[in-house]
Amino acid sequence: MTHEPATQMPAATPGLSPRRFWSALLLGLVALAVLIGLGTWQVERLFWKEALIETIERRIHGPAEDLGVIVAAEQSSGDIDYRPVRVTGTFDHAGERYFLSTHEGEAGWNVYTPLLVAGQDLAVFVNRGFVPYALKEPSARPEGQIAGLVTVEGLARNRVTDNPGGALMPDNDVAQHIFFWRDVPAMAEGLALPDGTRMLPFTIDAGEGAAPGGYPIGGQTVVTMPNNHLEYALTWYGIGLGLAVLLTVMVVAQFRAKRWRDRPSP
User: Fold this and answer.
1) Strands (E), the chain
2) 48 vs 44: CA distance, rounded Å
3) What is the pTM of this model?
4) Please, are residues 91 and 114 in contact by the beta-carbon 8 Å criterion?
């Protein structure tokens, strides 16, 4: 009785084919470079944010400067954000503009009112502060409509030339005097300013304190800035480290597989 010789199956070759291996390695290295770049970018953002926060802290605790100093600084550098300022003038309450806002959990409006600067052909919008929805109309808070000369101390805010929220922020409703971002030229539309009066391109946030009658409530400047860039950097670097370990394991496994394939047959 004859026996057919058993057919011997070829042994499986471990590891990726050279083409797949080098493709996977290249893609992994590109991804690693991207992750390292993102982590480094977040570190740069961290240093920038820390410097910005330090500048803001230094500015808001400084002495109030006359409006003329702030105007000159704005014209020369364009950066007057959070610099304390003092200005005397008369409010034009008929020119109020309204920005959606909240205060201590209550929804309402921040009231921006033109201030005609005393002794100068200048006007500037002052964020007088918060009023609830029900008190939007000036007739609902007559005691707060201060007449005559007033001196306002607050924080200057840089001019804004573009919608900072992009498509995510609604358009300003100029006709209804409702705004979502500080577009001073649009805010000034329809104002009955004295002839020759120039509206300054920046605004002023009034300091803390309520007007007579309780509203508007000043001190609505938001100076708290989130700074999560260190966490973001550690996240990207951590993912990159994990990928680097994975690539190392893959390379070691591939070369061990090559040595296994290249070993002499018994």
Assistant:
1) 65-66, 84-91, 97-103, 106-117, 122-132, 149-157, 178-179, 198-206, 209-210, 217-218
2) 6
3) 0.71
4) yes
pLDDT digits (tens, 9 = 90+) for 93-152: 999 999 999 999 999 999 999 999 999 999 999 999 999 999 999 999 999 999 999 999
Q: Which of 159, 136, 184 is nearest to 80 (CA)?
A: 159
* 34's tokens: 């991207």
Q: Which of 112, 197, 209 is nearest to 160 (CA)?
A: 112
CA-CA distances (angstroms) from residue 160 to 117, 135, 184, 223?
21, 27, 8, 17
User: How far apart are the C-alpha atoms of 178 and 174, rounded to whole Å?
Assistant: 6
> What pLDDT was estimated at residue 266?
58
CB atoms within 10 A of CB 152: 22
Question: Which of 250, 247, 243, 246 minimizes the C-alpha distance to 34?
Answer: 243
Nearest-angstrom CA–CA distance, 147 and 128:
14
Model confidence over 171-208: pLDDT tens digits?
899 999 999 999 999 999 999 999 999 999 999 999 99
The string over 236-256, giving b where at least 16 C-beta atoms fall within 10 Å of a residue's C-beta and e elsewhere, is bbeebeebeeebeebeeebee
Nearest to 13 by CA among 265, 257, 219: 257
Using the CB atoms, write b or e for 46-77: b if 16+ within 10 Å.
beebeeeeeebeebeeeebbebeebbebbeee
The token duo for 247 is 């690539």
**Distance of alpha carbon 136 from alpha carbon 99, whole angstroms:** 10
